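S.,

Sequence below, as promised.
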Amino acid sequence: MTVQVVRPAGAGHETLWVSFAAAAVLALAALVVGVRAQPQAAAALAPHQIDARTQLNAAEQGVHADLLVAAEEIAALHESDQTAPGVEQLRGIGLPPFSQGPETRARGGHEWRLRAQAHELVYIGRSAAPELAASFLLRVPTDGAAHAHGGEVEIWLKREGGANGEGGDGGDGGDGGDRAAAAWPEALDDPALMRQGWRQVVTRYDAGVTRKDASH
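The prediction came back faster than expected:
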């Protein structure tokens, strides 16, 4: 007669091995995440640029947003009519910021002029209330392939009354009640605008920008 001893089933070894496996998976995942992580560095601004998100006051951000929308409408009108949409035409269709009304006056009451150039339409808005908002300049390319800026819409800004004629970058925009109105730019190429105190408005993307911000 053969006697075989059968020990009772136990879960101690299995639990230990499962714990080791789980720890190994977590360690591997942490290593992969650490290796693939990118440094959260904010894009640096050039000396002639200003950040639309942090360096414009509320009125200026409103004008900037209106100009981005208006640029699309201007490009569409130019393509359909094969002529440069004048300021009176834009005002007639009620296109902000060229339209007139309480909101326009609250954002500086800009006086707009059009200068059509070889490959772009340039709309210059001189602020009637520099203490509320700076003067703006909108470039709308009409020939993207040949345009020096790669066919991109550009917006420039000039503040009056502050250091170097810029009025500071802090975005307060309300400390210069005696500021004089900006002069109309004499030339519109980048070096000339920089010499005259104009600064390009750009949107700097970093880790703090949400998808909603980026769509702006």
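Confidence is low (pLDDT under 50) at residues 162-178, 211-216.

Coffee later?
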